[in-house]
Amino acid sequence: MRSSQVAEILKGNQAMERALALLAAGEVVAIPTETVYGLAGDATNGEAVARIFEAKGRPRFNPLIAHVASMAMAETIAEFDPLSRRLTEAFWPGPLTLVLPHRATSGIHPLVTAGLDTIALRMPRGFGAQLIARLGRPLAAPSANSSGKISATSARAVEGDLGGRIQLVVDGGPTQVGLESTIVKADERGLHLLRPGGISAEEIEAIAGTKLLRNDKAGIEAPGMMLSHYAPGAAMRLNVSAVEPGEALLGFGQRRAAGAADAVAFLNLSETGDPREAASNLFSHMQALDRSGAKTIAVEPVPHAGLGEAINDRLARAAAPRDS
């Protein structure tokens, strides 16, 4: 339920002191990152972390990512194996999250890890990194949207969803990557891909010198692993070759599904078939087509190579059966 409160939206160069004051008071703040907008709270403050779950309506068995500003901060929270450390050297700061053994002395509140003995860590770029460094403590920051719904890639998208539940949205413009971070975990069996995201499996494999193992375990080990997630209000129909009456169409490339001209609305993830452009447009295009009034969004096939794996992962979760 929305309150009468309306979130304040401030540009990043005007928002730092206000954001710091709210975080220090145990409140939550929506912030831009290179991936999607995050709903940030002090990861060491149980009341702040609880407010994240409350604002999102997020199940408390679903862990959060802790965001850090430096390796020194990261090493007080988790234990790094040589392979994970090599990945940080290549991809931090950036859209890579590592699931690592959690140090009991870290000060991270147990709500962040959802009772697991591991913790998901990421080092962001930009405003988020500056904010964490100024605060001096890690931030828990899942995507700034209602649980299970489309992730926000603009400040206005955050305000339209969570504006009645939070006090501040920091406006950093459209996000660059447009997909959440890739999540990996190293153990004695190898390097596991828990969630495809803004860094492709091929890029990670080139640095790791080993193939990524796709997750073969039951249960939730990291954020973004729930079956139904990233969902619009409309139903989703994937890999279509023809559009049915009354559907909106989410396209990719230059070849159109049959009946495309009769779609209620149409947006193309990338005219040129560029997966990076498609990734950056995915959530905003899904939101726009959801507002068209169509009961179903039909989606043309997107190749699985590179970032296509992450795009197809988000589409599959958006199309998954939902709890009634």
From TrEMBL:
Keywords: ATP-binding, Cytoplasm, Nucleotide-binding, Nucleotidyltransferase, Transferase, tRNA processing. L-threonine binds at T35, H67, R122, A141, S181. GO terms for molecular function: ATP binding; double-stranded RNA binding; L-threonylcarbamoyladenylate synthase; tRNA binding. It is found in: Cytoplasm. Its EC number is 2.7.7.87. The keyword Protein transport does not apply. It comes from Pseudaminobacter salicylatoxidans. The keyword Membrane does not apply. ATP binds at R58, N62, T118, S143, S151, R195, Y230. Belongs to the SUA5 family. It catalyses: L-threonine + hydrogencarbonate + ATP = L-threonylcarbamoyladenylate + diphosphate + H2O. InterPro entries: DHBP_synth_RibB-like_a/b_dom, Sua5-like_dom, Sua5/YwlC_C, Sua5_C, T(6)A37_SUA5, TC-AMP_synthase_SUA5. It holds the Pfam family Sua5_yciO_yrdC. It is an enzyme of class 2 (transferase). Required for the formation of a threonylcarbamoyl group on adenosine at position 37 (t(6)A37) in tRNAs that read codons beginning with adenine. Residues 13-199 form the YrdC-like domain. GO terms for biological process: regulation of translational fidelity; tRNA processing. This is Threonylcarbamoyl-AMP synthase.
